[in-house]
Amino acid sequence: MSVARLNGSHSNLAWHEETIALIRDTLPDTPILLDIPGRKIRTLQLEHEPVFLAGQTIILTTDTNHTGKEKVPVGYDKLHERLTAGVKLFADDGTLSFEVISVTGRDILVRADMDGQLKSRKGINVPGIDLGQSLVTAKDRDMIAFAKKQGVDYIGISFVESKAHIEAIRSLIDGHTPKIVAKVENAGGIEHLEEVVSAADVIMIDRGDLAVETSIDRVAIYQKQILRSATLAGKPTIVATEMLHSMIENPLPTKAEVSDITNAVFDGAAAVMLSGETAVGRYPVEAVSRISGISQLAERYISNHRETALPDKKNDIRSAIQALTQALPVTKIIVLSRSGYGVRIASMSGSGIPVIAVGHDPAVTRSWNLFPGVTGIALDLAGLSSSAQDAKLIQTLLERRLVREDDYTLILSTQSDYAHLSGNLLRTLNIQSWLGNVGERQRSAAIEVA
Question: In the chain, what are the domains?
Answer without folding.
Answer: 41-125 (2.40.33.10), 318-441 (3.40.1380.20)
